[in-house]
Amino acid sequence: MATDPTHPNPDQTGLHFHWFLPTYGDSRNLVAGGHGTLMSGDRPATLPYLRQIVAAAEHNGFESLLTPTGAWCEDAMITTALLAESSDSIKFLVALRPGLMSPTLAAQMATTFQWQTGGRLLLNVVTGGESREQRAYGDFLDKEARYARADEFLEIVRGLWDSENPLSYSGDHLAVVDSVLARRPDPAPPIFFGGSSAAGVRVAARHADTYLTWGEPPAAVAGKLDRVRDAAAVHGRTPSFGVRLHVISRDTSEQAWAEADRLLAGIDPADVARVQASLAASESEGQRRMLDLHGGRTGSLEVSPNLWAGVGLVRGGAGTALVGSHEEVADRIGEYAELGLTHFVLSGYPHLEETYTFGEGVLPVLARRGLWTPGDRRRETVSVPFATATATATSATTTDATTTDATAADATAADATGTDIRPGQPATVGG
């Protein structure tokens, strides 16, 4: 059964911004590890701390929170289910590995999540790039077979979501008989999917609503998107595209690069050696492309204007960051948008504080340029009636000198606030 080419895609007009939940812990420094390598931050990933990040991301207008999966972090589905009730509108982009559970159970869990949260689930389907980590979960398929299984997995999940009729399916890796859900998701969770290898692109072309890439120089990203577009067109599909990046944005470029230098200076050479040795054994084509950007060296890490590969020295997966002033970071996002990228999945260290830095620094720039709409982010105007004096009979006989002084005071108030404040009128303070 082929994926329905009319399956609704996420809105491809305007840009969508997503943040990241560090369910392995957070830090003011780079956290080493990931993708088969153990990692932990000095801020533990407790529910109270993660709730702060959820609230900050929701407040700043992010659409969803990417939650990773793997042996190196907490379970994504359980964690986000616990966090959903502490938020009102933000969605959760939950990473899920095919093959570690029944496709029927996965379809049912996603449906329950969607129903109980009012449609706030997106799924990031991750095949698993490290055989040694997959074996720890009891999965002994090689990389090519994992992609083939992911294809079958998504066939079954989509079939269960799209039809009320019992589904029977028999593939090389998965089979179900008379499978049916008591409830179907409304809407069906959008599928985010990444993969740089030929097998990854093949599965993405058939199933991805949004194809995700890690942050590479624009020319490299453009080539990858073209491959996916061509492959998806064969199936009559047009996915949207997204990019996973870290971000270091400050009021000035000098401040941003100083922060990148601070993060680099805080890296333990032993961590670099440990993580690079682990990642060198990765079977992931995307991971190889990340490693090629820096080659394990700490020099020449700006691999494209404002694109810094320093994160990848100690972190698996997404290893690049946009570094610069708020205006410069907005410029680079605009360049990626011109390639066709509409979803930006971002993070920064520490994730709580950097949510505000990006949300208050870069998003307003993008809004002014017409690239992003704040949506329902609350804006308030507060009236402060601090000057309510009324004219009296006495004031009518005020001398010219007093009138001149009052006029000068009004002008000073207007200069200081940008608002023409006159006696008897409240001042408005914009949020």
Q: What structural category characterises the helix and strand content?
A: alpha/beta
Uncertain runs are 1-12, 388-431
Distance between the termini: 52 Å
Give a short account of the largest sheet: 8 strands, parallel, barrel
Strand order of the largest sheet: 1-2-3-4-7-8-9-13
- What is the 3D shape? globular
- Report the radius of gyration as a whole number of Å: 26 Å
- Determine the strand fraction and express it as a percent band: 15-25%
SSE pattern: EHEHEHEHHEEEHEHEHHHEEEHEHHEHE
Short description:
It is built from 14 helices and 15 strands. The protein has 431 residues and is α/β, with parallel strands linked by helices.
What does this structure look like?
With 431 residues, the chain is α/β, with parallel strands linked by helices. Helix content is 40%, strand content 17%. It has helices at 47-59, 76-84, 103-117, 131-136, 143-162, 198-207, 218-234, 253-265, 269-280, 285-294, 326-339, 351-361, 363-368, 400-417; strands at residues 16-20, 64-67, 91-96, 121-125, 167-170, 175-179, 191-194, 210-214, 240-250, 302-304, 307-308, 321-325, 341-347, 381-384, 427-430. The strands form three sheets. Strands 1-2-3-4-7-8-9-13 form an eight-stranded parallel barrel, surrounded by eight helices. The chain has a two-stranded antiparallel sheet with strand order 5-6. A two-stranded antiparallel sheet has the order 14-15. Helix 7 (218-234) links the parallel strand 8 and strand 9. Helix 6 crosses helix 7 (218-234).
